[in-house]
Amino acid sequence: MTKKQPKKNKTKNIKDNLEKIEQEPLLANILAIFKQSVDESFNYKQISAQLGYTNLEDRQKVAKGLEKLCRLGALIRVGRGKYQLAPQIIEKEAPPSVLIGKLDFKSTGKAYFINPDLNEDIFIAAPNTGQALPGDKVKIRLLPKRKNRKPEGIVIEVLERNRNQFVGVFEKGEYAGYVIPDDPRMPVEFVIPKELINGATEGDKVVVELVEWEKGIRSPVGKIIRVLGQPGENEVEMLSILVNNGFHLDFPEDVLQESLDISKEIKETDIKYRKDFRDVLTFTIDPAEAKDFDDAISFKKLDNDTYEIGIHIADVTHYVKPQSKIDKEAYQRATSVYLVDRTLHMLPERLSADVCSLKPGEDRLAFSVILKMNSKAKVLSSDFYETVINSDYRFNYEEVQQIIEGKRDDVNHDALRTLNDLAQILRADRFRRGAINFHSEEINFILNEQKKPIDIVTKEQKEANQLIEELMLLANKTVAEYIGLILKQKFNRELPFVYRVHDKPSAEKIANFAVFLRKLGYKLNLENEVALAKSMNHLFEQVADRPEENMINQIAIRTMSRAIYTTHNIGHYGLAFKYYTHFTSPIRRYPDIMVHRLLKSYLAKNNKIRYEKISELEEKCKHASEMEEKAQNAEWDSIKYKQAEFMLDKVGKVFTGYITGVSKWGLFVELDGKKCEGLVHMVDMKDDYYYLDENNYMLVGHRTGIKYKLGDRVRVKIKYVDVAKKQIGMTLC
Q1: Where does the pLDDT of residue 506 fall: very low under 50, low under 70, confident under 90, or very high at 90 and above?
Q2: Is 367:313 a contact under the CB 8 Å cutoff?
Q3: What is the end-to-end Cα distance of the chain in Å, rounded?
Q4: Span 604-614, average pLDDT
């Protein structure tokens, strides 16, 4: 009698096979192309073309990859040499009917539902957004799929408001007031009952708080909590940017009072158990305008080939106790926010710029990573101490750069040049191991006394910046390795910790990026992760100083996953680190405060480790990641505002620039040297009827055949500037 064979679990097999595919970048990228066109079939030549593979050897790899995907059940053969996505993969990729995520609104009123687990966003028509507002966490239900249309859904519940304070212009009505939000994505205006107007007058820019929104009523009820002033004034617009991105403008009085109650005096009891570095050469290196000094570097030569390097970080947690008023406010803010003309601090200024700041010539408490290194930048040993330091010098980056280049003499030039040599070795080693060297230029505005921009300059990151960057990266990595690797082995368990992680990019996004680059004449190596990283770095070298450089850099960054805080370590893809955290900036980042507290607990000599609940830590990590993104958006909004303000008196003038984007609306052009981008609207291109060639990223004249493509140099005249909307209109010359 034959035994009955157990049935194979097809779902489990597919899951296992998909995990195998993810481990092979070429297979993952081939599959990504099929996922983007579920109803289409392709042969190996078509897939090779999309990936930018032209030589015979690469195309043979693609052919073998297609065969392997068939064996793994991800593809099926549908004709001679042609393949299509397997039905079981299509079924697996289909999302459930009810989903939770966030809404990204457009100015037209429509929105897109975003969930990181989905391969594509879900379209929400304006009538189907319900009472949701931009950024809200919502529950949606999928609508029946329509042929050749994106997935669509309808909001069935608002789970959590992204924010409840908004900025807009007040208008007075006969029976009530109204606030018209600044944010063009806001689908509604606020009704303000007379008793909640709070002294606002017609035309004032105000902060309104959402009070209630009854079902079936089109507009929510709000109350005015602050009158900012007249639209267009610099102070008013900068404050508006902060509120619109979800930040509180002022510290509560009890928080400020608590900061004043903290003693600046360092007592003997404070330093009794600390390691004393006050007699070791120590200095800070920061921007010239910096007031808060998070970090300092100490340097001691031990022998001809060995150095002791101290990376000293302000000991904020000595002063900011858990659950104190300052701590609770710092957690809510999560980060300092850097606008063009100001900083909104995470901590009250008395702490950030005085008590905690590692000022020169003053005793300061620090939490330090002490490294013993040789001349080849190999770390021979590492230790962590609570310390007391006294910084000898306060350098800015320009001064250190001059010392490195030999253009300026200083008593500390040997120490600085040695540190620079070590930093450059560390940097080169990172890139050898697969780190990605994203190129980005820092935009700086020269402001007059009224904070109006009179010039825009770009700053290049030089060796002085890289010196500090590499030492901070090394300190962060060393702390994370100690917790995630060494202590894990010691205690035979993973300890709760806050990691800074960066997931590898999705195969779909990389495949799209490779296709985009191929049309511009560039190629990515998708064979494995290290090869991809090296080809990305080679790409950045290829496009350096070319018209398309900035555009390709920006798209490359968008192709990557966002770095986030989490308790679940998956490594940092962009830095090529298996363990990484944020330890070095507790004055301006709350996750660093969390890391300091955890590390101190694990270093405690009494072995009484206070284990944080993973769920609570993870919630704090999620909040910090969200606030970091809001801070970046606020910074970018302030840059766009100042760029528009800078161009305000240049209407009618002619500039040269290059095309950074093409769309159905027209051409996006960035002006040479000033990094100001504007739109040449299609309706103003009157010499011909132009249509969008999406496949080749260009506009083509129907009659003349004139082509405008990405990277083309053009001359433009400034047609208009709308500072409130942060928009610059242009016409071609």
Answers
A1: confident
A2: yes
A3: 88
A4: 65
Of all residues in the chain, the percent with pLDDT exceeding 70 is: 97
Of the candidates 570, 565, 563, the residue with the CA atom closest to the CA atom of residue 619: 565
Whether the Cβ atoms of residue 395 and residue 408 lie closer than 8 Å to each other:
no
How many angstroms separate the Cα of 419 from the Cα of each of 310, 389, 478, 568?
11, 19, 17, 33
Domains of the chain: 10-92 (1.10.10.10), 95-160 (2.40.50.690), 165-231 (2.40.50.700), 255-501+568-636 (no CATH), 651-732 (2.40.50.140)
CB 74 within 8 A of CB 90: no
Judge residue 684's burial from the number of C-beta atoms within 10 Å of its C-beta, 0-12 exposed, 13-18 middle, 19 or more buried: middle
684 token code pair: 């103003």
CA dist 81 and 577 (Å) reads 41
Q: Which is nearest to 79 in space by CA: 36, 46, 101?
A: 46
Q: Beta partners for 212?
A: 221
User: 3-state DSSP call for residue 486?
Assistant: helix
- This prediction has a pTM of 0.86
Amino acid 608: pLDDT: 55
- In terms of average pLDDT, the best of 3-12, 50-59, 364-373, 459-468 is 364-373
Report helix, strand or coil for 514.
helix
Helix (H, G, I), strand (E, B) or coil at 364: strand
Show the DSSP H helices in 447-519 as ranges: 463-481, 487-491, 507-519
Give the CA distances from residue 596 to residues 297, 431, 698, in Å, rounded to whole numbers and listed in that order: 18, 28, 51
Mean residue pLDDT of the chain comes to: 91
The alpha carbon torsion through 625, 631, 634, 635 (nearest 10 deg) reads: -120
d(CA 566, CA 500): 7
Q: Residue 2: pLDDT above 50?
A: no
CB 372 within 8 A of CB 308: yes
- At 55, list the tokens: 């030589």
Instruction: Give one DSSP letter per residue of 176-200, joined into a string.
Output: EEEEEES-TT----EEEEGGG-TT-
* DSSP assigned state of 77: E
- H/E element, 413: helix 413-432
Query: CB–CB of 113/153 below 8 Å?
Result: yes
Q: Name the DSSP class of 126.
A: G
d(CA 469, CA 140): 43
Distance (Å) of CA 317 to CA 360, 364, 625:
21, 13, 20
Contact 552, 517 (CB under 8 A): yes
Between CA 324 and CA 347 the distance in angstroms is: 12
Exposed, middle or buried: residue 25 (CB in 10 Å: 0-12, 13-18, 19+)? buried
Identify whether the C-beta of residue 316 lies closer than 8 Å to the C-beta of residue 347: yes
- Is residue 173 scored above 60 in pLDDT? yes
Q: Which residues contact 156 (CB under 8 A, 6 or more apart)?
A: 98, 130, 139, 140, 141
Residues forming beta bridges with residue 158, ordered by sequence position:
138
Most confident range, picked from 44-53, 333-342, 518-527, 556-565: 333-342
pLDDT-based confidence at 515, cuts 50/70/90?
Answer: confident
Helix (H) or strand (E) holding 535: helix 529-543
Tokens 């990181």 sit on residue: 116
Query: What is the DSSP code string of 658-715?
Result: EEEEEETTEEEEEETTT--EEEEEGGG-TTS-EEEEGGGTEEEETTT--EEETT-EEE
Between the CA of residue 563 and those of 14, 221, 503, 586, 622, what are the distances in Å? 29, 37, 7, 18, 12
Alpha helices by DSSP H, listed for 544-679, are: 549-559, 590-603, 614-647
Mean pLDDT value across residues 194-208: 96
DSSP state of 230: S
How far is it, in rounded angstroms, from Cα 675 to Cα 643? 8
